[in-house]
């Protein structure tokens, strides 16, 4: 498995689908030998090459290579330390998701099939300056009980057992935020799926096996 190739393609996909912009995002994945491969500081996700990645030790955060690892390395390593099942982490600031991160609007998961599954567990952390250990620690604490973490006045971090599933989680989040906002703008009342139906859907694996949270 060529992790760098997968991450390059992921970066291009995020940018092409307005899930990331400029140098605001950073992405990582676990290599076959158990190291974290993460984008270097100041890279453009739409135009990554092999020199734009850094190899990191998850336990220590130490890295090798001529480039400096992303300043958000503490956030990525914190998630991997908490979750053995996680193999990919995406951090970005999509427009609608970031709008919700900068407000008190509720992100609703009881809307359609994908939101029931991918948005089941969302956590929030208060604003901390990017790249700080405080942000890394706050994210690490929430990672044990969520699959999406909204970073207030900053953006979002999502993670999953593959790069493709992490992208799907991010896309679902952004679509839900857009739908909720558009419904408000147009005075459309969204019908929520009943809690009993959501419970049945998740527990009986009517879409995909439910993610286990500690």
From TrEMBL:
The keyword Transmembrane helix does not apply. Residues 5-181 form the Class II aldolase/adducin N-terminal domain. Keywords: Lyase, Metal-binding. Gene3D superfamilies: Class II aldolase/adducin N-terminal domain. The keyword Transferase does not apply. It comes from the Bacteria. PANTHER family: 3-OXO-TETRONATE 4-PHOSPHATE DECARBOXYLASE-RELATED, FUCULOSE PHOSPHATE ALDOLASE. This is Class II aldolase/adducin family protein.
């Amino acid at each position: 498995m060529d992790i760098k190739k997968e991450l390059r393609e992921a970066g291009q996909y995020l940018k092409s689908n307005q899930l990331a912009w400029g140098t605001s995002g950073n992405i990582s994945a676990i290599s076959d030998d158990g190291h974290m491969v993460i984008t270097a500081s100041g890279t453009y996700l739409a135009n990554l090459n092999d020199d734009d990645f850094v190899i990191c030790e998850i336990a220590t955060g130490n890295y090798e290579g001529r480039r400096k690892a992303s300043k958000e390395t503490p956030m990525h390593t914190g998630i991997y330390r908490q979750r053995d099942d996680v193999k990919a982490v995406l951090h970005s600031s999509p427009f609608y998701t970031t709008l919700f991160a900068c407000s008190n609007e509720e992100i609703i998961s009881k809307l359609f099939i994908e939101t029931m599954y991918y948005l089941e567990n969302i956590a929030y952390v208060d604003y901390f300056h990017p790249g700080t250990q405080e942000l890394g620690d706050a994210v690490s604490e929430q990672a044990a009980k969520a699959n999406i973490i909204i970073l207030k006045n900053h953006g979002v971090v999502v993670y999953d057992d593959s790069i493709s599933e992490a992208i799907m989680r991010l896309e679902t989040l952004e679509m839900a935020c857009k739908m909720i906002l558009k419904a408000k703008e147009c005075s459309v009342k969204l019908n929520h799926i009943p809690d009993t139906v959501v419970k049945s859907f998740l527990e009986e694996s009517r879409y995909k096996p439910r993610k286990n949270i500690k």
